[in-house]
Design a protein that fits this description.
alpha+beta, elongated
């Protein structure tokens, strides 16, 4: 028989075996105490759902940010060099100086211009990016999706379009697309739009619908003629080995670019997107944390009811020699068992869901007949999820801390119970 007076078990363990035994027995409520058991079950389910939801949402938002940034950095330069108040002339010399800067992996002159595209009765506003074939071949985010024949055909009177645009206009390589630019010929009656037809040399896909549906690549010399740029470009884009650390390279790049230029890092160009993602992530974390908080409050109510129902048992334990600390530890074990079990279940559910999120999305779409992830709105072709060990650990620790705090008051109340008062009417 276990002696409750020996509340400190052998080996100096925090919880004695008899404390575990009593806590487990209390969690297995009898029929007359079934309501307490139901509350405990709901608390466990609530914590599990809260932890799983937090892990899934934080991972999806983290994956969305990572893929969005990767698509940006794989398509655009990490630092853009522009002329101030004038066209950027002598760009070849600027390119050579920038290539000599340590840490620079790619430099390319570009021309960007807005046009209206039309084909087979469809039309859309687009960005034309003028770029040399050699520079396009080094733009891995685009070139990796193009065939060798597409790059070989990229030349005079031919362009490369995105997959989204090709699907919208029902275009294939070899078809013709008409581009209309507002900056055309100067006449006595004003500027007339310039209209030209080009052959589709190839179709690229970077996985970001913003680019796949809104950009066309045109040879640089052709773009200069089309946009009346003569021997100038709109910018020189620079890619560095470590895009996240590009700010530290700005002084060197500015010196190589020369006077009369300004440098715009990718963080400044996309600051609005990045700020919105960060704010959204923080707000969602705060809102979804309330699920775990509500579940923790259910633990409090369940344990308070358990303490009330077990008052005679607690009084008998005290009269047999169990200390107040032992009684408190019994209910700490009971409450933490619910919290730890719910947290582990939620952790497993969240991780498994994140690892299979795209397959689950496709299955739910087929089952419900509803589009759950609109590529045209989120600019990505698939739902991303990126598990961050530190983030997941933070969610688990938060759930365990809230559970522990929730068990303190009921456990303290049980420890303070007066045996005489509890047994007076028994």
């Amino acid at each position: 028989m276990v002696d409750p007076s020996n509340s400190r078990s052998e080996g100096g363990r925090i919880f004695a075996p008899f404390e575990w035994m009593i806590a487990v027995r209390y969690l297995r409520a009898k029929r007359k105490e079934g309501f307490v058991s139901v509350i405990s079950l709901f608390s466990l389910i609530g914590i599990a759902l809260g932890v799983a939801t937090l892990i899934i949402v934080m991972s999806v938002m983290g994956g969305f940010r990572t893929q969005f940034i990767q698509s940006l950095l794989g398509f655009n330069g990490h630092v853009t060099v522009q002329a101030v108040g004038r066209p950027l002339m002598n760009y070849d010399a600027v390119v050579q100086r920038l290539k000599a800067v340590p840490g620079v992996i790619r430099v390319a002159p570009i021309i960007d211009g807005q046009v209206m595209a039309t084909a087979y009765g469809a039309n859309s506003g687009l960005i034309v990016r003028g770029m040399r074939r050699a520079d396009l071949e080094t733009l891995k985010g685009v070139a990796s999706s193009l065939s060798t024949s597409a790059l070989a055909a990229y030349g005079e009177s031919s362009v490369i379009i995105g997959k989204g645009l090709a699907d919208k206009f029902q275009l294939r390589p070899g078809d013709s697309i008409t581009l209309i630019s507002p900056s055309g010929e100067e006449t006595p009656f004003g500027t007339t739009p310039r209209l030209m037809s080009f052959t589709v040399a190839g179709i690229f896909k970077v996985g970001n619908t913003l680019y796949d549906s809104g950009f066309i690549f045109m040879p640089l010399d052709q773009a200069q003629a089309y946009f009346n740029r003569e021997q100038s470009v709109t910018a020189v884009e620079v890619m560095v080995r470590s895009p996240e650390d590009n700010m530290a390279m700005l002084p060197q790049l500015a010196g190589a670019a020369g006077s009369g230029t300004r440098l715009v890092p990718w963080q400044n160009i996309n600051s609005g997107f990045l700020e919105v993602l960060e704010i959204e992530k923080n707000v969602m974390f705060m809102i979804l944390s309330l699920i775990i908080l509500v579940a923790a409050l259910n633990i409090i109510s369940g344990l308070v009811m358990l303490v009330k129902d077990k008052s005679p048992d607690i009084a008998i334990l005290r009269t047999m020699g169990a200390s107040r600390g032992a009684v408190m530890r019994v209910f700490l074990i009971a409450g933490m068992s619910i919290g730890v079990t719910g947290t582990l279940v939620g952790l497993i559910l969240g991780v498994v869901f994140c690892l299979n999120i795209e397959g689950i999305r496709q299955g739910l779409q087929s089952l419900l007949g509803v589009k759950l992830f609109d590529e045209n709105f989120y600019f990505l072709a698939r739902m991303p999820a990126e598990l961050d060990a530190m983030q997941v650990t933070g969610v688990v620790v938060m759930a365990l801390v809230l559970t522990f705090l929730a068990t303190l008051y009921p456990s303290w109340r049980a420890a303070r119970l007066d045996p005489v008062e509890a047994l007076r009417y028994e």
